[in-house]
What we know:
Layout: E1 8-17, E2 21-30
Antiparallel strand pairs: 1-2
Protein name: Epimerase/racemase
Pfam family, one: Aldose_epim
GO molecular function: aldose 1-epimerase activity; carbohydrate binding
Amino acid sequence: MAGFPGDLAVMVTCMFVGSNKLAIKMEAKPQNKATPVNIASHTYWNLGGHNSGTILSHDIQLFASSITPVDKNLIPTGDYFGKRHRL
Length: 87
């Protein structure tokens, strides 16, 4: 990608753990120069299965100490919720 100091070798491994967990392991190694990188997975699942419609009626439970809300354009607001909230 243009604008970064060096090249990266990136590897993503998806694996099943036990009978009900999916793990995603991501690794990036600089090839020719120290290069900052922050890898994230933005995976979306349709819990109803393939061709079952939209995900707009799904509920999700996140086990996190805080979350960052977004505005109507899905841009983070800079705030965070540190207590229990139902969005």
